[in-house]
Prior knowledge:
It contains five helices and no strands. It has 144 residues and is an all-alpha fold. The protein starts with a helix and ends in a 5-residue tail after the last helix.
Amino acid sequence: xxxxxxxxxxxxxxxxxxxxxxxxxxxxxxxxxxxxxxxxxxxxxxxxxxxxxxxxxxxxxxxxxxxxxxxxxxxxxxxxxxxxxxxxxxxxxxxxxxxxxxxxxxxxxxxxxxxxxxxxxxxxxxxxxxxxxxxxxxxxxxxx
Length: 144
């Protein structure tokens, strides 16, 4: 909703008043980036992420659970840990030098948007662990 409002204000300023704001334009991509990054863990939590469903849909529930667990351990966890590790330094360096937009009239406090990167992947790790545990339960359903 905030993104839509921001774009609306930017469009009205640009076309109705022949005026534009660099800060509003930067805020658009900051909000979109945050939405995208925070949506990754939400999508994983709701098992709505992209996969090759043509093959996956034909597998048994146990085989699907095994693929999900392996996918988490081999792909999701390592890249999430890597991005979190380097993302914290990335955001901290921006904070330390008080990084701001290179454009005149742009946003200050660039570390805020850069902090969303490691935060989102910490949430991916948490969602992935819950996802893997849930799949592990499906893997062992018939054995209990």
